[in-house]
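User: Can you help me understand a structure? I only have the sequence.
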Amino acid sequence: MPITEVEGRRLRLSHLDRVLWPETGTTKAELLEYYATVAGALLPHTTGRLASFVRTPDGVDGQRFFQKRPPAGTPGWVTTTERVRSGGELMDQVEVNDLATLVWAGNLACVEIHTPQWRAADPDTADRLVLDLDPGPDRTVVDCCRVALDLRERLAADGITALAKTSGSKGLHLLAALRGATPDQARAYARTVARELEAAHPDRVVSRMAKADRAGRVFIDWSQNSASKTTAVPYTVRARARPTVSAPLTWDEVAAADTPEHLAFTIGEVPERLEEIGDPLAALLAPGGAGALPG
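Assistant: Let's start by predicting it. Here is the structure, written out as tokens:
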């Protein structure tokens, strides 16, 4: 097994030639190279947050599992934080705070990285709002873009600045920085906004959880603002048939979207996007950019 040094940490890498995405022949080595290349943009979105991983040790067509606890053999230098779960159970979780941790996780085939909308140091404060737009049958991410533009305008009316990214799967995520909110308040606000948009556009928007109601509509999932829920982080790879990425978008790209293919970015494309346009979600991290919920 090759040993490499990342930021002064020695890592033993394994099975670098293992194909994780059979459809495209993409290997674990390519996954690690991608994460190392985009780390400067990804890490600010994960630092200080508890990470959950989707692991696919035998590739995306094989067994997969959602991992929250630090796996056996986690190095002592990986930051972990103890969390109190519902029922009072204590559980450690990893924080992806640096490049070495990111590469270590990738070497374990932690393909996807998810975090909650709060920081580990302050779990009672929601500093992010998320609205997950999921296209129902006969709808696509292009329809999600139309709904996203309406949501952007609605949130702006409350002084909240929304930013967009692909989910890396079928839909779109809207994110906004918050201040002075609890997870319950963020969840209630997201639900209110989703219901308002459904009332205004019942032919193309639904806010109810029942899958039977989603045909021909875009579902606005407001529930991910719950303290117990997580969302795929910006720039994470997804465990789909192809190595697609949850890629930040400019609003011009959202407005101009005309085919789903134009919003499907893979690990081979995102690094060049970063070089050309920077991080469209940088404003999410800017000091003083957070909005307060009304009321």
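Now, to help you interpret it: The radius of gyration is 19 Å. DSSP finds six helices and 17 strands in the chain. Let me know which part you'd like to focus on.
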